[in-house]
Amino acid sequence: MKRNDKLAVVIPAAGVGSRMQAQMPKQYIPLLGKPILVHTLEKLAGLECVSQFMVAVSKEDGYFSSALLPDSRFSHCEGGQERADSVLLALKALAPSRPDWVLVHDAARPLVALDDIYQLISRCINQQQGGILAAKVKDTIKRGTELVQETVPRASLWQAFTPQMFRYEELLAALELGLSQGANITDEASAMELQNQPVQLIAARTDNIKITTPEDLPLAEFIIQQQGKQHD
Predict the structure, then answer these.
(1) Using the 8-state DSSP alphabet, how is residue 153 labeled?
(2) Could you tell me if 165 and 197 are in contact, meaning their C-beta atoms sit under 8 angstroms apart?
(3) Which of 46, 106, 107, 180 could form a disulfide with 27 if both were Cys (CB 3.0 to 4.6 A apart)?
């Protein structure tokens, strides 16, 4: 990793998390005594090589406070309707500092391993190509609605995680173009794929789960406790 590469992290946190069936956006649901978002931000704060973090929050967000931000490298901006909108607004908020690379990480993914993120950063910079953390699909995959239509070969299937890391200027351009075309942008990699940009797959730990449904909470608690024991 070159010393002069400037890194920033974007955390889109403007979603409502309807699948959690909770009274508040899922990123604020308590997890072992702290909001999920705080766990995520505190984990990311361990990235000493990152100079700036930008959290995108909804303008109707009544739960967010600057007091939730771990240190002075963290700022916040207004988010958008969809994830891609929030990421784009955060990238524009980072424009004055003009980072070389940006990593985008889910607000509800507090279990990511820093070692995996450092591997992602190293691979992307060494190869001069963007990339994502991912894991090979283990289960047999079926395609269908109420009935199975086919079994999908899984040899080349990967489960996409975050962070996802790309050159700042290239991701900014890809999101602007994709949104202007009305494309279905589900993550940053999909925006880059639409522009025929290469995206590396960097194998990562499978416990980097995204907290999405109520049954994910006890699993996340267990994983956090196990990760804590590994560092004791």
Answers:
(1) P
(2) no
(3) 107
Q: Distance between CA 129 and CA 176 in Å, rounded?
A: 19
β-partners of residue 75 are 54
Q: Which of 110, 65, 126 is nearest to 212 (CA)?
A: 110
Q: Could you read off the pLDDT of 195-231 as tens digits, one per residue?
A: 999 999 999 999 999 999 889 999 999 999 988 776 6
Q: How many CA atoms lie within 13 A of 2 on its CB side?
A: 10
Residue type, 196: N
CA 187, CA 174: separation in Å to the nearest integer? 11
- Rounded CA gap, 211 and 206, in Å? 13
Tokens linked to 121:
């950063």
Question: What is the C-alpha to C-alpha distance for residues 88 and 90, in angstroms, rounded to an integer?
Answer: 5
Question: Which residues make Cβ contacts (< 8 Å) with residue 196, sequence separation at least 6?
Answer: none
CA distance 32 to 214: 14
Residue in 173, 24, 185, 163 with CA at minimum distance from that of residue 103: 163
- For residue 198, say if its preceding peptide bond is cis, omega within 30 degrees of 0: no
Torsion of CA 164, 224, 154, 115, to 10 degrees: 50
Cβ atoms of 49 and 1 closer than 8 Å: yes
pLDDT digits (tens, 9 = 90+) for 131-186: 999 999 999 999 999 999 999 999 999 999 999 999 999 999 999 999 999 999 99
